[in-house]
Amino acid sequence: MKLAEKLIQYHTLTKAEYIELLDECENPEICKRLSDEAVRLRKKYYGDKVYTRGLIEFTNYCKNNCYYCGIRCGNQNARRYRMSREEILDCCENGYGLGFRTFVLQGGEDPFYTDEMVAGIVREIKTKYPDCALTLSIGEKSCESYRLFKEAGADRYLLRHETADEAHYRKLHPENMSLSNRKRCLYDLKKLGYQVGAGFMVGSPGQTNETLAEDLLFLAELQPQMVGIGPFIPHHDTQFAKEKAGSVEQTLFLLSVVRILLPKVLLPATTALGTIDPRGREKGLLAGANVVMPNLSPVKNRKQYDLYDNKICTGEEAAECRGCLARRVGSVGYRLVQERGDAV
Length: 344
Ligand code: SAM
Ligand code: FES
Hints:
Layout: H1 2-10, H2 15-22, H3 28-46, E1 49-52, E2 54-59, H4 85-98, E3 102-107, H5 115-128, E4 133-137, H6 143-152, E5 156-158, H7 166-172, H8 179-191, E6 195-202, H9 209-222, E7 226-231, H10 248-261, H11 271-276, H12 280-286, E8 291-292, H13 299-302, H14 318-331, E9 335-337
Parallel strand pairs: 1-8, 1-9, 2-3, 3-4, 4-5, 5-6, 6-7
């Protein structure tokens, strides 16, 4: 309990202390102490509001081959799709009508969409919906590309660092990718004035409490406005098909720790968490999360954005997803709001 109290008081620990704290992630008293404090902080800054982001998964082509990912380029079994500019704009129109005020354009790293195309789509969305925030999540690019997207009107960028430990990073990614480039991207994005989201999977193959401690130290250094944390879930067409999924308990524990580490952070209760536990997203909110990211992509493409097995919400229309989430959020005492939901 000593370390939980220290984290609560100072919002930071040393690497050795984080490792020791993470060893206690199944201790119910410590979990309760941390989640109580996480909830106190989220209420202090965000009251009972939960922000929604309309996720548009516009391409599942990817030039990368991250070993854990179902849509990596090496997966010959993935059925590929790309959405046109018009289809993306239709998703925004539908989403705006449903009350979304943030759109997230996410995809594999797909060279089909040139920087000019992406900037054009961003510009059009921001012109049509000036009261909405636009988030990009399209992987590693040059600083110049990020600058172009920013000038076109992009507000935020999600790029999970995946792991801050070199050896662990090597286990999850092929030779042509590097942790240093991932970090370079995140620092470039910050410098350019984006609201930046980093993050990692919980329980990815090779992860230890030591690598998780590195993740927490990296988050403390980067000071991102958003942190995406969800369990690793195996995909049948990857080399990690037989690995165990991350645990609900450890994910919740880390959500609380991150809320305490970065009290004002925008922290989603992820779809992956909802996939490994039917009430995972509600539990995420009770552990300190304050964002949900329902899908706005056309139902015909949803199953194809197949990052991991048994992904939920792949058969429902956007309106159904929003209604379902509003009820879930309400069931744990929070309120889904129609706002951009910037970091305070
Ligand atoms: N290409 C962009 C990028 O690299 O940031 C965005 C798309 S990528 C599929 C989005 C996130 O999905 C990754 O950052 C990763 O953490 C997560 N992801 C991929 N495979 C996963 C798996 N098997 N289980 C859980 N999350 C996974
Ligand atoms: Fe590129 Fe997963 S390997 S999105």
